Amino acid sequence: MKFSRLGRSSGSIELPETWATPLEVSRLLDHTAKMVCDEWLARCRTMAVAPDDAPNAWLERTCYALVMGYIKSEAEDAFEARIEQYQRKLRGPRSSGTIFQTALMAITAHQGDAISAGLRERVGKRLWHAYRHYVPPVFLNGFFKQIGSKDLPRRATDEEIEPGFDEWIAEQLAQETNFDSRGTYPGRILAIIPPSKERDFDDGYDGVDDGDDDPDESGDDHEGNKDDDDEWFTRPLSEPDEE
Fold it and tell me: What is the reported pTM?
């Protein structure tokens, strides 16, 4: 994982596929969190940056990629552990909301309440919404620009699915090997998961459309009306936009 830094070379974090000890997990997250927090605070003090490099936009991208990495390496419990490590510097609830809200608190735990509860909630909900849509980190900014910010916190809280993402999400669910909770999905998505993939979902759906789970009967196929060139998920994922 790489992240940009103002006036310096990019930071780089390499997460191992397997961890030797819990202490290794703790030490690497502590080192990473301090680098990320220092860079975010430096950006907060600097106003002359492009919109995509603004403090909160940068924090969103970096936190999202970091959390995705820790989930992939099955070490996401390290975020709550770091909160406990620095709990004397924090006020209010230690952990609430999504894993991204927990991670944001963990990243700045050594600085006390550097990130307000309101900012944690806003950013955490935005990242949770992207996570539920299986958005790759490289396309995070494009996803938010495409769907718009109006009512986004409410849409995330209500676990709404954006138009045009049904098939993409179904494909990703079919490829899950260790299903981690991303909330619940509507029947219209569960009904189009390839039947060769049998999974256990919260609502008992087994991946086969046997007629018991009625899809959305509204007549909206949720495929969207935008041109392909305007939608990030139609582009090859191996060829991200040039910055």
Answer: 0.73
